[in-house]
Automatic annotation (TrEMBL):
One Gene Ontology MF term: structural constituent of nuclear pore
Subcellular location per the Swiss-Prot or TrEMBL entry: Nucleus, Nuclear pore complex
GO BP term, pick one: poly(A)+ mRNA export from nucleus
Organism: Rotaria sordida
GO cellular component: nuclear pore
Protein name (record): Nuclear pore protein
Main localization, broad class: nucleus
UniProt keyword list: Membrane, mRNA transport, Nuclear pore complex, Nucleus, Protein transport, Translocation, Transport
Length: 814
């Protein structure tokens, strides 16, 4: 056993190394006689003599220790293997869930002798992108594809699909999502993997619950719709796969071929089984039910002479109430060797399905794919007898309990959901957990785009439960075990808003996509903004420089009519006008006014956005009012906060230019007040700059804002302006103090060289009366003392005293 290569001599060095290794691993209490190097052994006799000598000198205690240690290790390994095997058997269902794609597997997974290649099915060019061929739904594990790595192209395709759908919906006024899902499936078929396409097909199929009188508020009808729709999907796919694979005269022939060619099914046959056409009746009954062929199941039961099973099936399909006593008696009738739950696993599965018993039994022995598990559990759910459904004395499986089992008890890690997200989402869809499927896909960056459009589609079909506020968490699940009820609500506005902020916000090239995604929420109400569409527009279009892209803008155009240049205003329409192209201009103006009003009431920090929207809607009075309020607040901040460097947005001056053009058509006092506020800001801006008090003085005097004589009648307009709103009322005393300080600086300093010659003449003209004007201004301020604090009035008095001192010094000098 120590020979490394065929040879007539032996390598004693190798033997010596192995013995030394044994010595190193032994306990320190044991000693081994060191091996002495012998001359080269030349024949077998010398080797035998050497080995006998070594055995005679070997330590018996150490040998016993090593033997016991080996036996202990072997025993440990044996029980670990037994425990591992037991654990695997107990979790056979979990292993089944993890083993395969959640699409129905290839029939080769059922038939070990089949030579059908799933890749040929996946690459079948005859499959319609808008239809669905069930044979492509049966794929084996080896053909599972990884998630599409680059989603940028897919995102664009999804966005374009939504834009086209919105155009159709706005033009016709209706949209039920049917055209939307067809395009989504086409995108998945063209740009994505097969598993994505299968998820979309399952989503389309499960939206068919609406054809089964689906009512979310009615627990029984909602459960009935989900179960019937999901079972139809699973049964149809199974039947079509058998027919395509075996291509027999009838389905019964396909079923026989399938069972006889599958070694796993054949191994489960019991000696006590009734035979039909040479095959155990139990797998025939099971797979007949699995294919949804009730008549075939009855025929097989009749051929096998199983009256008790026939009674079970009739009761299973009956609408009559089944009481607890009846169930007990019925169960006792089958507690014999022929109909008990022991023996053939297919017999146990059939009886548990028809009797709706052993609800926690996974029936792992008969599972060939996850679809079998789902179908068994769905088949155990009550869909016919509403009275039995509401009977709380019966322990029964329901859709809410099945959803909780998958979502909470088994959970994402058991399904390896993050490795196969579309597979896990497909399970949730088949169980009617639409909200949970959308929320799960959104947690993975590469599948967010699918989550968004899946949720939009289900919302269009009115199949989503929605939260009442965007401030709530992404998904809310509230259950009532006594009423067997689970309420699941998805925060769809938050879902879409998060996606838009990641992909499109502040990207001018993506505003068209942004408002189309926002428009998907047009039917979801919002307490402050009327609907979620308006709220998203308000929240996501905050950049004043870019709002013209969404809402449009006024531009000044030169009109050479009759050789005379006239400036006129022209409206450049925005993306919102394109979205609402089916509406009249007056209706779009109403939309803009609604947005502006909401911003004014709930988003005071965005007054200019509201002002711009009012202007676009031809509501100039509200536009000027908000712009004036913004300017007044800006002036006040500049006067009160020394470190403030705020300056008006360009919109303020652009609006003034447009108002000047409008003033030629219609004179408005609000326009004049707005121009006056801009001039006041110019004064304050010069006043706060270093070495600019001369220009501030010139602007102040040219404004004629304050009375500098005894006749105050000409200044009534200025006083009305200051009393027009709260911002100007707060501004008035601070502006008076700024004017007084400006006059004092003029009195104290000479003429600056920064002024032009014309400005110097004006400055000197006003400077000669600066002391008297300061006194008149102080008197005017005291007449409005109710607007000033005591500290401000004392400041005015001190400014007057300083001015008088300079005036007295100046007079004594002359």
């Amino acid at each position: 056993m120590f020979l490394s290569t065929p040879s007539t001599s032996f390598n004693l060095t190798s033997i010596e190394k192995k013995l030394a290794a044994i010595e190193a691993t032994s306990a320190s209490s044991y000693t081994v006689k060191p091996t002495t190097r012998l001359p080269k052994v030349n024949n077998e006799a010398e080797l035998d003599a050497y080995l006998k000598s070594e055995r005679a000198n070997f330590n018996d205690e150490q040998f016993e220790y090593l033997t016991q240690q080996s036996l202990t290790q072997a025993d440990t390994d044996y029980w670990e293997e037994i425990f591992s095997d037991s654990l695997k058997r107990r979790r056979n269902l979990i292993n089944c869930l993890l083993a395969d794609d959640l699409r129905p597997r290839s029939i080769s997974s059922y038939d070990s002798t089949s030579t059908i290649k799933t890749s040929q099915i996946l690459n079948d060019s005859t499959t319609s992108p808008t239809g669905y061929d069930f044979k492509s739904d049966w794929t084996s594990q080896q053909n599972q594809s990884s998630i599409f790595a680059d989603l940028s192209l897919v995102e664009q395709q999804y966005a374009q699909t939504l834009i086209k759908y919105n155009q159709t919906r706005t033009s016709s006024g209706t949209g039920d999502g049917d055209q939307l899902i067809l395009q989504y499936k086409h995108i998945a078929k063209t740009y994505e993997t097969q598993v994505v396409y299968d998820m979309w097909h399952a989503a389309e199929w499960m939206s068919g619950v609406l054809d089964y009188d689906y009512r979310k508020s009615d627990l029984f009808h909602a459960q009935r719709a989900i179960v019937l729709c999901a079972r139809d999907y699973l049964e149809r796919s199974f039947r079509q796969a058998l027919e395509i694979t075996y291509n027999d005269i009838d389905f019964y022939g396909c079923l026989l071929s399938f069972i006889t060619s599958n070694e796993k099914i054949s191994r489960l046959q019991s000696v006590d089984d009734r035979l039909v056409d040479g095959v155990s009746a139990w797998p025939l009954i099971f797979y007949a039910l699995r294919a949804g062929d009730i008549n075939l199941a009855f025929n097989i039961i009749h051929k096998a002479n199983l009256p008790h099973v026939q009674a079970l099936l009739e009761t299973y399909l009956s609408k009559e109430q089944t009481t607890t006593t009846t169930t007990t008696n019925k169960s006792s009738n089958i507690r014999n060797i022929e109909y008990s739950l022991v023996g053939n696993p297919y017999k146990r599965a059939v009886i548990c399905i028809l009797d709706r018993t052993n609800l926690v039994d996974a029936h792992e022995d008969v599972l060939l794919c996850i679809e079998d598990f789902l179908w068994i559990k769905l088949a155990q759910i009550q869909t016919i007898n509403e009275t039995a459904f509401h009977d709380r004395t019966n322990v029964q499986l329901t859709i809410p309990r099945l959803q909780r089992w998958i979502l909470r008890d088994l959970g994402e890690e058991y399904f390896k959901a993050y490795e196969q997200p579309f597979r896990y989402a497909r399970i949730l869809l088949l169980c009617g957990a639409f909200e949970s499927a959308c929320e799960f896909l959104f947690k993975i960056s590469l599948t967010k785009v699918h989550s968004i459009h899946l949720s939009i589609y289900f919302n269009e079909k009115y199949l989503l439960g929605l939260t009442s506020s965007i401030d709530e968490c992404m998904i809310m699940i509230a259950g009532n075990s006594q009423q067997n009820k689970t309420n699941t609500a998805l925060n769809l506005p938050k879902l879409i808003e998060t996606y838009l902020k990641e992909k499109f916000i502040h990207n001018q090239n993506r505003y068209w996509e942004l408002i189309n995604y926002a428009y998907a929420l047009i039917n979801i109400e919002h307490s402050e903004a009327e609907n979620e569409f308006r709220r998203l527009l308000i929240d996501l279009t905050t950049n004043l420089d870019d709002i013209h892209i969404v809402y449009g803008k006024w531009i000044i155009v030169i009109d050479n009519d009759g050789g005379e240049e006239n400036r006129i205003l022209k409206l450049e329409r925005g993306l919102l006008h394109e979205l609402f192209s089916h509406l009249d201009d007056s209706d779009i103006d109403d939309v803009l006014i609604g947005l502006a009003t909401t911003i004014e009431e709930h988003h005071r920090s965005r007054l200019l956005v509201a002002s711009a929207l009012f202007e676009l809607a031809h509501d100039y009075s509200s536009c000027i009012r908000l712009a004036s309020e913004y300017i007044a607040q800006l002036i006040l901040d500049r006067l009160l906060i020394s470190s403030s460097t705020l300056s008006p947005f360009p919109f303020i001056y652009e609006l003034a230019q447009r108002l000047q053009i409008l003033s030629k058509i219609k004179h408005d006092d609000n326009q004049q007040n707005y121009f006056l506020l801009l001039d006041i800001y110019a004064f304050v801006d010069y006043y706060l700059r270093v070495e600019q008090h001369e220009r501030a003085f010139l602007v102040l005097r040219q404004l004629k804002l304050f009375p500098y004589g005894k006749d105050y009648n000409d200044d009534e307009q200025a006083r009305q302006l200051f009393a027009s709103n709260k911002w100007l009322q707060q501004l008035f005393p601070h502006l008076c103090l700024a004017a007084l300080r400006t006059h004092l600086l003029v009195i104290q300093h000479g003429t600056s060289s920064n002024l032009t010659e014309e400005e110097k003449h004006q400055y000197e003209f006003y400077r000669h009366t600066a002391s008297i004007d300061l006194t008149h201004l102080a008197e005017f301020a005291h007449m409005q003392s109710q607007s000033f604090t005591r500290t401000q009035l004392r400041s005015i008095d001190r400014l007057c005293e300083q001015a008088n001192q300079y005036y007295d010094q100046d007079m004594s000098f002359h």
